[in-house]
Amino acid sequence: AHGKSSLKSLNSLLMKFSTVGAGFQDCRNAFEEYDRNKNGTIERKELKEVLDQVEGLDANACDEIFKNADMNGDDVISFKEFIVALTLAYFSKEMDWDADGTISFTEFLFALTGWAGIEEDDE
Question: Rounded to an integer, what distance in angstroms lies between the CA atom of residue 47 and that of residue 66?
Answer without folding.
Answer: 8
